[in-house]
Design goal:
Layout: H1 5-12, H2 16-23, H3 31-43, E1 62-68, H4 73-89, E2 92-98, H5 104-115, E3 119-123, H6 131-134, E4 141-144, E5 156-161, H7 163-176, E6 182-186, H8 194-208, E7 218-220, H9 229-241, E8 248-251, H10 254-266, E9 276-278, H11 284-288, E10 295-297, H12 300-315, E11 323-326, E12 329-331
Length: 344
């Protein structure tokens, strides 16, 4: 297996999005970092799949992967999987970074015109757009990790876990440990996709056990923020400043959970003795963090493979649009335990 964009990022000590910017000659990257990335690419003879501009557009079998939230390392793992699937099928994979405040549909329409791919895959984002605008995408499209919300009839498929059900599962687990005061870190209040669904799952689990939902235990991201360690750290600190009591904290991504652990430690709160912490995604870093993070693992390889296969079948007219749902796996690790004062 050849070197991937994720390998290049690790060797340079930067994020996948930075490597993407260097390869695409973006202006928002300093020259020193860009030179370093290009040196490593040359050293390992890396030919990026997203160099489709070197191919004849009329002959190229290429797809575009639009990534909204490259700072989330979970997406880095998915991009790796998609690149492998594209290589296996003989397609080029054009990686397109979409800024947090950028409209992913606008980016897709531009990419479709500029790159002339045979299909599109969306990673991240909310994908709530007017039907008339969606209709302008005259290409097979798949939403990966995002629920399609009735988009199948417009030629858009989706591959994801059932975010609401998996979130309910995690909250139920924390309740089974005796926790009733469970803090929750999630996307901005305006989120209409993953963040909203995971919040609904959390609320439903509380309600089914007769536990009142407490809005003051919910931490929302600011609109311009992303799923990152620093965001989780800031959100947990803000929650602690409210002086609200809680014995467990559930974050809707592992990156947020790890950042929150740092804020709790600085406040003198031991994890999990004083406060259990749980995340979502099943990122590799969560397994090696101390304490290892209890989480819902998304089946990355399955989601990547199914997203690519569904798109290729749609391109080749073998398959109509579908919504595919996969089950997550509850991984109980070191960051959660019985609620204080409760024994087995």
């Amino acid at each position: 297996m050849g070197i991937t964009i994720k390998d290049i990022a690790k060797k340079c000590g930067v994020g996948v999005s930075t490597v993407s910017r260097a390869m695409n000659n973006h202006p928002d990257i300093n020259q020193e970092t860009k030179d370093k990335v290009l040196r490593v690419m040359e050293e390992y003879n890396y030919v990026p799949n997203n160099s489709a501009r070197n191919l004849k557009r009329s002959e190229a079998k290429a797809i575009v992967v639009l990534v909204k939230g490259l700072g989330n390392t979970f997406f880095g793992e998915l991009v790796d999987g998609l690149e492998r699937e594209c290589e296996r099928k003989g397609y080029s994979c054009i990686l397109q970074h979409v800024d947090e405040q950028e409209d992913e549909l606008d980016a897709a329409l531009y990419a479709a015109k500029e790159k002339k791919p045979m299909g599109l895959i969306f990673l991240g984002g909310n994908f709530r757009h007017p039907r008339e605008k969606v209709a302008q995408l005259e290409l097979p499209c798949v939403l990966s990790t995002i629920r399609s919300q009735g988009m199948e009839e417009q030629g858009i498929g989706s591959v994801s876990v059932d975010d609401m059900e998996e979130s309910r599962k995690m909250t139920e687990y924390l309740i089974s440990l005796g926790h009733r005061d469970i803090a929750f870190l999630t996307a901005p209040k305006t989120d209409e996709s993953i963040g909203k669904l995971r919040l609904l799952g959390y609320r439903r689990a509380l309600e089914s056990h007769g536990i009142p939902f407490r809005e003051n235990l919910v931490g929302y991201m600011d609109v311009e923020e992303r799923y990152s360690f620093s965001t989780g750290y800031r959100m947990a600190k803000k929650l602690l400043e409210k002086k609200e009591s809680f014995t467990a904290l559930y974050a809707t991504s592992d990156t947020l959970a790890i950042g929150a652990c740092r804020a709790l430690k600085e406040a003198g709160i031991s994890v999990p003795k004083d406060c259990s912490v749980a995340g979502f995604d099943g990122m590799e870093v969560g397994e090696y963090y101390i304490p290892a993070i209890t989480t819902i693992r998304q089946p990355v390889e399955k989601i990547a493979g199914a997203s690519a296969d569904l798109l290729f079948d749609m391109i080749e007219k073998k398959e109509k649009t579908r919504r595919l749902l996969y089950q997550g796996e509850l991984l109980v690790r070191e960051s959660t335990c019985q609620a204080p004062g409760r024994t087995e």
